[in-house]
Write a structure and sequence with these properties.
heterodimer; A: mainly alpha; 2 strands; globular; B: alpha/beta; Glutaredoxin; six-stranded mixed sheet; 6 strands; 37% helix; elongated
Chain lengths: 146, 153
């Protein structure tokens, strides 16, 4: 396999868990700013790499502060980075929906992000990563067809 | 406030329910049909091992690395098994013919290259071992670790 930048899968899961909880708490207390905040955090991971994601940094801080012995599980970066991009897009749209006052639609999208992030945190199943791999295969098929 | 709390709990519960469902399916070997050809597997001569383990992997696929490690370990334990690793992206024709929708996907074949078991995702070591060793379809021969082969293309 090709040499690519690696990230800690457990860090990604930890970050996903943090964002899922933050979004749920934000929903309960109707703290709308948490949605764009999560969108920005996901955007940073997407643009600059997962090691610069505030969610990952929070995970690492918690792990260090509580001396959690969670092993580092290396994983190639492109799929989770693509997943962060998808998360940013959806939470970004959710944030925009709050501006004209479409709060229900905004929170629905934010809860969708929370659901998928929760799933990733609990199982390691990264829907965005699966989509990335599927798209990569589709692109390869297109190249082979020509 | 209470309604929102209920909704938030429902989302969390849904997340856990989906997680449980996914864990039940993930990496589970199911009986399957079909047949591979020696050309598809990139082997000229079939050594007639008692089982052939075909692994479809992909680039950038982290779970594939986990599966490869498990297979590598099991290959040293289970005798008379031939392991074939296929890059699903590079061999799209083979992947499509066997309806491989995601990677990793594993097939366990008998000596005539008939598909016996299939699993998508990351099976446990025990699941892979069980699929290779039983039930009695393979007619397990006398263990002969020297016949192990691993073809990668």
């Amino acid at each position: 396999m090709s040499q690519k930048r690696m990230v800690d899968k457990n860090g990604m899961r930890g970050g996903a868990g943090i964002s899922a909880i933050v979004l749920l708490v934000g929903f309960v207390f109707q703290w709308r700013p948490v949605v764009p905040a999560i969108a920005v955090a996901l955007a940073m991971g997407s643009l600059f790499g997962l090691r610069y994601s505030p969610l990952g940094a929070t995970y690492r801080f918690i792990k260090k502060a509580f001396r959690l012995s969670i092993p580092v599980e290396p994983e190639e970066e492109p799929p989770p980075r693509f997943a962060q991009t998808l998360g940013f897009v959806v939470s970004g749209i959710a944030s925009l929906l709050f501006i004209p006052g479409w709060n229900a639609a905004g929170w629905a999208l934010a809860l969708l992000v929370s659901l998928l992030q929760g799933l990733l945190a609990v199982t390691g199943l990264c829907i965005g990563c699966e989509i990335y791999l599927y798209v990569q295969r589709f692109k390869t098929r297109e190249v082979q067809a020509h | 406030m209470i309604v929102r709390l209920v909704v938030a709990l429902a989302v969390a519960a849904l997340s856990v329910a989906l997680a449980v469902l996914w864990r039940r399916r993930e990496g589970r070997f199911d009986e399957a049909e079909g047949r591979f050809t020696p050309v598809e597997l990139g082997v000229v001569k079939i050594e007639r091992p008692s089982a052939v383990l075909v692994e479809f992997y992909g680039q950038d696929c982290a779970p594939c690395v986990t599966v490869q490690k498990r297979i590598g370990k099991i290959a040293t334990e289970v005798p008379d098994v031939q392991i074939v690793s296929i890059d699903a992206g590079a061999r799209m024709d083979v992947a499509d013919r066997h309806e491989v929708r995601r990677v990793p996907t594993l097939f366990v074949l008998d000596a005539d290259l008939r598909v016996r078991w299939r699993a998508s995702g990351v099976p446990s070591e025990d699941a892979i071992r069980n699929a290779l060793l039983g039930p009695n379809w393979a007619g397990r021969p006398v263990p002969d670790a020297a016949r192990q082969q691993h073809v990668r293309h």
